[in-house]
Write a structure and sequence with these properties.
This protein is mainly alpha-helical and 212 residues long. The protein has helices at residues 5-21, 23-33, 38-56, 61-75, 80-94, 103-121, 131-146, 151-168, 192-211; strands spanning 3-4, 100-101. The chain has one domain (3-207): Serine Threonine Protein Phosphatase 5, Tetratricopeptide repeat, CATH 1.25.40.340. The protein is built from nine helices and two strands; from the N terminus they run E-H-H-H-H-H-E-H-H-H-H. The longest helix has 20 residues, at 192-211.
Amino acid sequence: MSISREDAVDWIKTCAVVIADQSDYLTQLDAAIGDADHGVNLDRGFKAVMVKLPEVSDKDIGTILKTVGMTLLLTVGGAGGPLYGTFFVHAGMKTAGKLELDLEGWYSALDAALEGVILRGRAEVGDKTMVDTLVPAVKALKLAVDTKQPMGNALLLSVDAARRGMESTIPLVAQKGRASYVGERSAGHQDPGATSSYLILKAAADAWIDGG
């Protein structure tokens, strides 16, 4: 099993559906510790992505992902735009010119995306951000590459690690972003960015395992 250009497009389409479905939930999470707009903003961004996607669906994977990133950067408000834009742009830079990815290629793309997010947001594990979801997901993928796991199994392992990372944000006190303004009151709430990051990674597994 490998990830084709068509698979990449399917991932983005699945993301758009999932974010739309979970928009209210993400906004509720954000209402507890933020500006109550995370779901709305991200949904607006992916709706804009769906408008742009047909223009690049016949291009290489890198072009597709960079287009997604630039569109999110321009249409998602708040801190989410730069962070999710960076995530997809850096993944796109790593996959430039490629029409297909193996497991190592997918790991490299996500690792580059994570590096971009960390550089942009200056967050680390434990700060109660999307990084808490992305780091364990990428580490699980690296282990899957090293142990030569089948693609489907590797995706499931990565998503499970992402879920546990997301859930780990519940007891944390936010150190970055809007949630840090509420201090100790942020503890006991799942981070909305960690949650949307999990949904985006899970969308890849859902699209590729079901489709592949």
